[in-house]
Amino acid sequence: MGPLEGLMAVLDRPFVCGDLFDGVADTIFFVKDGAGRYVAVNQVLAQRTGFQSKEALVGLRADEVFPGELGLRIAAQDRLILENAHSLKGELELHLYPDGREGWCLTWKEPLFDRGRRVAGLVGLSRDVRGANAAPDETLALSHALRVAQDPSGRALKAGDLAKRAGLSAFQLDQRIRAMFGLSAGQYLMRLRIERASESLRRTGEPISQIALDCGYADQTAFTRQFRKVVGLSPGSYRRAKASPGR
């Protein structure tokens, strides 16, 4: 048992992050079980969804908490993560709340695994998008573009292609992505490709040359060069390291 596991084993309430995030007014935090039911949340989520307390959300699914299509979409998103061990990395979403308010946020979700490496739940957070100063229709266009970039069919897209998909100029796209992620549009797309490649290297036995093509690189050499620059290891070394015991 490692230091983290040892600490978690003796805590009265392991998911103390819910209390920690109570004081972060622009962030929703949550933990869900294998059926997509809330087991821990922060006070911000309770307030925004009209519940009197955090405890009132425990045992409910997203489609029982959020209104209409939003609740159904979040529940479907949870099922995808729970059934396929997928991660969600900074997805731009428009959240509608029961009191009629709406707001853009960036959402991250990660699967939680039991000791047998089976998905046992998920943990996530949604952070309000502030400072983008974009008109609603422009933000909606950016949301569409980011969804395209995060979809497998968009793996070979370049920043200019993404701007056209969003109906924005290259400058507008770059400024919006910088405001949200602190990265240029090109850096954001590169990060997505590296994250996808890393996941494939960890979870599949696909040849590295095929992973390179699937992630939008012209060839294995170009992929290896960028992967090594960003990660510090060649793709093959990274795969071997992640396959080693204790990793």
Automatic annotation (TrEMBL):
Pfam families: HTH_18 (PF12833), PAS_4 (PF08448). GO terms for molecular function: DNA-binding transcription factor activity; sequence-specific DNA binding. Residues 143-241 form the HTH araC/xylS-type domain. Keywords: DNA-binding, Transcription, Transcription regulation. NCBIfam families: sensory_box. This is Helix-turn-helix domain-containing protein. It comes from Lichenibacterium minor.
